[in-house]
Amino acid sequence: MKIATFNINGVGARLPRLLEWLEEARPDVACLQELKAPTERFPAAEIEALGYQAVWEGQKSWNGVAILARGEAPVVRHRRLPGDPEDLQSRYIEAEVGGLVIGCLYLPNGNPAPGPKFDYKLAWFERLAVHARSLLEDGGPVVLAGDFNVMPTDLDVYAPERWRDDALFRPEVREAYARLVAQGWTDALRSLHPGERIYTFWDYFRNAFGRDAGLRIDHLLLSPELAPRLVAAGVDRAARAKEKPSDHAPTWIEIAPP
């Protein structure tokens, strides 16, 4: 079973790239972030034409998340991250697919830091940690996939010294990620590639992709029941090299049958 996460950076603007990637990579499940489109503008028909069914939560101009499944309909469990009913930003959707629970998330960027946006990021991270622990307590195979907007270690950023004060790399954020993983989650990509510089995001500016000046901010975390079934993980860098791409590349894992 192939599961991928892809911050599409505008599903309208990048729809040709998304459809192209779905045809080429053929993931069984794809988690999308930053749809940047209201719910009614999600391109369900075009995606269904490739054999995928989807659940999604849009938001005009910002955010937006979706879970696509090939050959079956995801069964929604949550359309918002639990813990704050007043938070209406579309940053989390959770569904059951193929015997797995899939949580697709778009964690806040948090810049500028310090400030209200950074405070919101840390609060959102804490809510995620509470919900993630409840998923582990429930048991069963779970994947938390998405754009976490955090580089966990120096190995995950091309020039660590330039990012020390950025909201994606401040110690508070890296510590929050470390505490989350310490609940019992496995960082899939890093577990299979422990010493490699692997990036999932390259800025559009200053020829970042050409220089390989990237960041690893897209992650797939696996519950203890699922981690032993991990057989492969990687990043589809070729998608980032195409015309008018997202600034992220799809990140994927392969899971063996139970």
UniProtKB/TrEMBL annotation:
The active site is at 106, 147 (proton donor/acceptor), 248 (proton acceptor). Residues 4-248 form the Endonuclease/exonuclease/phosphatase domain. The record marks 149 as: Transition state stabilizer. It is an enzyme of class 3 (hydrolase). The keyword Magnesium applies. Mg(2+) binds at residues 7, 34, 147, 149, 247-248. PROSITE patterns: AP_NUCLEASE_F1_4 (PS51435). Belongs to the DNA repair enzymes AP/ExoA family. This is Exodeoxyribonuclease III. It comes from Phenylobacterium deserti. The lineage of its organism: Bacteria, Pseudomonadati, Pseudomonadota, Alphaproteobacteria, Caulobacterales.
